[in-house]
């Protein structure tokens, strides 16, 4: 042990100028330890808030289910009132023996009774959904009778942590800026020193040096712990840099473009309060579809904003952006408007933006094949999906119905069914294509004409259950999707940004920004440390620890 101390002193005394530089690096490495502490604080806050967040989400699900139940009950009341009105008129027509009125009112009564049955089913489904949401919340051990008071307490708890998180964020931001500003300066100084002493070995921050300087508390173990923390942070930073490099290589980007990725991704992550790793995952998803790095970066801001505003996964939204861009021929610069249409459309009914992110990549090619293009094609499809959802129990059923309509409305079987009703559907579709009309809308008109408005006869045309369910929804809410589509194109602008402003003010956003700042700070310090020779120094430290352990 004494021999190693003497050897270390000899090296240090011969390298005073370089040691001063490395002392500065060691000081900055202690800041890496501070960064690790901030990361631990972030983890602790995340864990303490995760239970609160889950409870608030469960409460939101209860509130949403109750809102849908109220709407369903209103719908049932309206349907029953209409059925009663028609029933009374029918009874009167029978009394006066008005044959024509009886026939017409009988058909309308059948439609009204089906509407009552559908509304009753909707109430039953929503009642069950409310019960399920309450049972899920009961798992937290909170009496469901005190939901309002409990929600108020939970939100107050979240608000109280936000101020502390923001304080840490500001401190971390200062460290980040300092490290980045000093990295280049130290690298240049180090290069100049190495050029002046080309043949002299570089000292390393080993435990022996720490002991020689009188650092007594943990001796060699203190140095080992410090080096381990630094190495762990260095590995994380290196892994992220390597991930960006691989993204650039997949996109066939230049080295200069790859070098600029880190700054772009970090800045966007902070703007949208999105974990930087998730943003990198979204960029990976975009370039994996064969897009260039420039195209992917054009898409990424709208993807990040939309994912943050809606609570969707970034890679899901990225895949949706690729599908929308490819199938609806919407360029990256116009993608935000497309996401505004989807976000506003998701709020217009029960088929939410998360559902669109999940299913549009598979629906897009089928819609594109029958002429859905641009913002109008997208808004039409979004509006139709809301119509399908009204006539279905789940989002999955709505998608299945939409898929069946897109795939089967021009099938040989359907064309033959129209012929049996005296309709030349093949000629009608051909004419509509030439005129650039929406073929689903043309299909609606043909069904209305063939059945003369009597949906009870739909079995004469369609016997497939999912196809029939979708057509029932189209005919039950005929004209609604066209109005919604037009409204989405005219009034949806800015929907995502308005939602994003709210989301980026909450406690989770502060935590995500703090995590991102810590990651960026660590990456800057890693480059700083590498410029000071710590990459090789950590290896030497490991050898020193081994020699101490076996001495």
UniProtKB/TrEMBL annotation:
Q: What is this protein called?
A: Phage tail tape measure protein domain-containing protein
Annotated region Disordered: the residues are: 193-212
Q: Which InterPro entries match?
A: Phage_tape_meas (IPR010090)
Concerning NCBIfam families, the annotation shows: tape_meas_TP901
> Which Pfam family, just one, is annotated for this protein?
PhageMin_Tail
Query: Domain Phage tail tape measure protein: where?
Result: 265-450
Q: Taxonomic classification, please? A: Bacteria, Pseudomonadati, Pseudomonadota, Alphaproteobacteria, Hyphomicrobiales
For whether the record's keyword set contains Zinc-finger, the answer is no
**Record's keyword annotation contains Transmembrane:** no
* Record keywords: Viral release from host cell
Please report the organism this UniProt entry assigns to the protein: Methylobacterium haplocladii
């Amino acid at each position: 042990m004494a021999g190693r101390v003497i050897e270390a002193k000899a090296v240090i005394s011969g390298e005073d100028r370089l040691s001063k530089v490395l002392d500065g690096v060691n000081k900055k490495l202690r800041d890496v330890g501070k960064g690790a502490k901030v990361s631990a604080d972030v983890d602790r806050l995340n864990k303490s808030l995760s239970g609160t967040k889950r409870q608030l989400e469960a409460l939101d699900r209860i509130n949403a289910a109750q809102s849908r139940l109220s709407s369903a009950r209103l719908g049932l009341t309206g349907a029953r009132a209409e059925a009663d009105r028609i029933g009374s008129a029918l009874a009167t027509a029978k009394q006066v023996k008005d044959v024509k009125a009886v026939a017409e009112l009988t058909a309308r009564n059948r439609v009204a009774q089906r509407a009552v049955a559908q509304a009753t089913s909707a109430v039953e489904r929503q009642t069950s959904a409310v019960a399920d949401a309450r049972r899920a919340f009961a798992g937290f051990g909170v009496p469901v009778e005190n939901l309002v008071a409990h929600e108020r307490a939970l939100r107050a708890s979240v608000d109280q942590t936000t101020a502390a998180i923001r304080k840490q964020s500001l401190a971390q931001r200062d460290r980040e800026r300092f490290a980045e500003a000093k990295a280049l300066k130290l690298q240049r100084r180090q290069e100049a020193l190495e050029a002046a002493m080309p043949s002299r070995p570089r000292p390393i921050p080993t435990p022996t040096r720490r002991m020689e300087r009188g650092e007594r508390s943990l001796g060699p173990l203190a140095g080992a712990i410090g080096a381990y923390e630094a190495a762990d942070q260095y590995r994380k930073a290196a892994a992220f840099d390597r991930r960006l490099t691989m993204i650039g290589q997949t996109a066939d980007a230049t080295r200069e473009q790859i070098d600029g990725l880190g700054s772009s991704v970090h800045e966007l992550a902070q703007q949208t309060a999105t974990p930087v790793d998730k943003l990198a995952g979204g960029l990976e998803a975009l370039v994996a579809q064969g897009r260039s790095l420039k195209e992917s970066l054009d898409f990424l801001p709208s993807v990040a904003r939309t994912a943050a505003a809606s609570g969707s996964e970034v890679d899901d939204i990225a895949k949706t952006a690729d599908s929308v861009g490819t199938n609806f021929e919407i360029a990256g610069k116009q993608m935000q408007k497309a996401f505004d249409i989807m976000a506003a459309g998701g709020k217009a009914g029960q088929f939410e933006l998360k559902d669109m992110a999940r299913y549009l990549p598979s629906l897009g090619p089928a819609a594109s094949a029958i002429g859905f293009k641009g913002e109008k094609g997208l808004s039409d499809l979004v509006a139709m999906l809301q119509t399908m959802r009204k006539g279905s129990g789940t989002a999955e059923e709505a998608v299945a119905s939409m898929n069946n309509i897109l795939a089967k409305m021009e099938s040989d079987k359907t064309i033959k069914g129209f012929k049996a009703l005296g309709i030349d559907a093949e000629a009608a579709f051909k004419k509509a294509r030439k005129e650039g009309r929406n073929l689903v809308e043309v299909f609606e008109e043909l069904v209305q004409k063939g059945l003369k408005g009597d949906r009870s006869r739909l079995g004469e045309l369609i016997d497939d259950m999912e196809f029939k369910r979708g057509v029932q929804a189209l005919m039950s809410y005929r004209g609604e999707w066209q109005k919604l589509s037009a409204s989405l194109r005219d009034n949806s602008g800015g929907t995502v940004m308005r939602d994003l402003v709210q989301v980026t003010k909450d406690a989770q956003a502060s935590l995500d920004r703090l995590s991102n700042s810590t990651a960026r700070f660590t990456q800057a310090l890693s480059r700083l440390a590498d410029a000071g020779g710590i990459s090789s120094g950590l290896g030497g430290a490991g050898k020193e620890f081994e020699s101490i352990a076996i001495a």
